[in-house]
Amino acid sequence: MKKLFPVLAMAVSLFTATSAIAQNKAEDKSQRPSPPAVVKETISSGATITIDYSQPAVKGRTIGKDLEPKDGEIWRAGANEATVFETDKAISIEGKKLNAGKYAFFIQKKGTDWTLIFNKTWKTWGAYEYEKNKGNDVLKVRVKEKKASSFAERLTYTIAKDGTISLAWGDKLVSFKAGK
User: β-strand 164-179 against 137-159: which pairing, if any?
Assistant: First the structure.
């Protein structure tokens, strides 16, 4: 029995170390099919806006049928965890006030109308928990979809100095204005 204990302890230690290494590899988000991306800009009003998201790829699929956003459904505006929209100062989005802070950024598409949703429960997985957190929406703004001038294989956000924020995804382009 005394000899069995050290062998058992060694086996448990080896298993724990192997599990920790495997977990660290599993948490390497850059290896995901939809890798992480961050875009950050200080706009002309002086606010710094950061969008932290994951970039799905179209891969020959059809947006709205095989891929989000699907009409009427809430979309995390990216892949994996919910997209996080952060501003270090109070700003306006399309003329409506948004306080400084971090927000989960969701979209609901209906035809060419896109409702942009800023929710204070920013640390969440995708849109799966949106229903239980929708009471934490702090701002909803409607904007129109446009046809993009070039095809974006990967979802891409851009922030211009003038506060224009754009989402390019496939042949779709959605832009909105952030300012004072």
Answer: antiparallel
